[in-house]
Amino acid sequence: MALYSAAAAVLEGLERGDGGLKSLVYNSRFPHVRQLYALFFETLRYSSVLEKLLAGAALLQAEKKLPPQLAKVLVYDLLFGKGLKCGGRWKALARRHRARLEAELARLKVQQKVSRNEDLLAPAQAASPAASQVPRYVRVNTLKTCVEDVIDFFKRQGYSYLGKAASVEELKAISGKKFLLDLHLPELLVFPPQTDFHDNLLYTSGHIILQDKASCLPAFLLAPAAGSHVIDACAAPGNKTSHLAAILKNKGQIFAFDVDTKRLATMNTMLMRAGVTGFQLAQQDFLTVDPRDPKYSKVTHILLDPSCSGSGMVTRVLQEEPAPSAQRLQALATFQRKVLSHALSFPALQRLVYSTCSLHQEENEDVVQAVLREQGSAFGLVDAFPLWPCRGVAAFPGAESCLRASPADTLTHGFFVAVLELFFEGAAAPSTMPVAAENPQQGAGTEPGAAPKKRKRKKQRVK
């Protein structure tokens, strides 16, 4: 019942204008944030349809003590979701009206001349075809288990393992109770879209992390060696931080910053569940962190994923600002340039990954270009992950060294990643790219934190 009550409370808060989607979800204090967000988002997406069903079935008139927001959540999960797997007395109440609600749903489909539930949605509410094809990605948490054991677990649960994917098209075709090993990332399993593991034992025990593939790229490409000191500059909700810890094998030190107390509390719970040690959380704006503080004198790697427009998220269709204004993009880009410049000022820094979940050049290539111009010859772009199919747009010479991701091209959320390394005049510094990124034949047995193959790599300097 707690899940349904929390989703109803978030829905009510949004209707009152108490805050944005993410802030309301995080402030709910519900322990499983992604599960709550998924249920809330889908209920909101079907809101107009649910209102018609409630009115047609006269449910609120029959059950006067049932709050309308809770009624929407219950009816969504009853008719469109997982079928009310929890809910106590409200579950029994909704099921009493199931026949009437199903009849009203059938009548609505006939009236609108559609056969699928998704077709009842207005065009602005329906997920794009590309977005609906994004698989469920499951990152194996190597701090607690290994890929082989997780594969065996899912086999025992009735899933069929199809081996390592050979192409993105193969990921797109996956269906039913089947799963694959990702073709790019060695500890990422791929299941059909909308597969729900929030109640799965491996998820609740921290053995697997539900994380989009594009979101796995920053830590994977940062690739700090075990024992490194690393900063996660804008860390909450913590998936990338836990990924860094797995790459470090819990050897070394992670400094993680975020300004929101409640997001940090949620993150701390998540990291503890994932078995992460050797981390320090700080409620602090990263821009106020002093690079000369002796505490950070050994920081050689920084993961920087700053606030952005979020335009690459497939759920962005229901956000308050689906199309950020030019002024909003300019303000974000100004902040992003400032925080990237600040990150590059740490004295022992050798490698940095800058990433956003934005599709806008203003927040991506333009930011990198502007900061590299300011830095002169100090840092250069690494030609990251040559096997990745989508590259940065040609905003400047060398932009193709950056990575882009999208639902249509890579079956992920929209994302941007740039890898920067300290530049030594006269010679390219050896790359610390993971072996798996360079040699696809290594497969699942290669860990992102494995010892890197040293080789010279040309860096791009922006003029």
UniProtKB/TrEMBL annotation:
Residues 452-463 have a biased composition (Basic residues). Residues 91-118 form a coiled coil. GO terms for molecular function: RNA binding; rRNA (cytosine-C5-)-methyltransferase activity. The active site is at C357. Keywords: Acetylation, Coiled coil, Methyltransferase, Nucleus, Phosphoprotein, RNA-binding, rRNA processing, S-adenosyl-L-methionine, Transferase. InterPro entries: MeTrfase_RsmB-F_NOP2_cat (IPR049560), MeTrfase_RsmB-F_NOP2_dom (IPR001678), NSUN5_7_fdxn-like (IPR049561), NSUN5_RCM1_N (IPR048889), RCMT (IPR023267), SAM-dependent_MTases_sf (IPR029063). Pfam families: Methyltr_RsmB-F, NSUN5_fdxn-like, NSUN5_N. Residues 126-423 form the SAM-dependent MTase RsmB/NOP-type domain. Residues 434-463 are annotated as: Disordered. It is found in: Nucleus, Nucleolus. One of its GO terms (biological process) is rRNA base methylation. Its main location: nucleus. Belongs to the class I-like SAM-binding methyltransferase superfamily. RsmB/NOP family. This is 28S rRNA (cytosine-C(5))-methyltransferase. The gene is Nsun5.
